[in-house]
Design goal:
With about 100 residues, this protein is mostly helical. Helix content is about 70%, strand content about 0%.
Amino acid sequence: MIITFSQIIIFFLILARLIGMVMLAPVFSRKEVMSSVKIAFCFWIATILLFVVPLPISFATTPLTFMIALGIELCIGMIIGFITDIMIIAIEFGGSLMDTQAGLS
């Protein structure tokens, strides 16, 4: 299988979004998970998603626009990770409130 230049660009954009998400995701942001595991996870998921994500008609052609696109994808991934972290915190807080109201604390 021949991998084109546009697929390599899409791979790095997917990888940037996954790295941003893993930085703030509830499960992966803990210190118990090693950095090499996080990087390997992002790399293999990006490799799998490369063949699912359709190639755009136009993409970043200059290094500056590519870096801006990487920054945007990283920010989107961080937003996704932050939102999932907020949802997990809300569930834990709700459980804590139920525990306190029930008198089990």
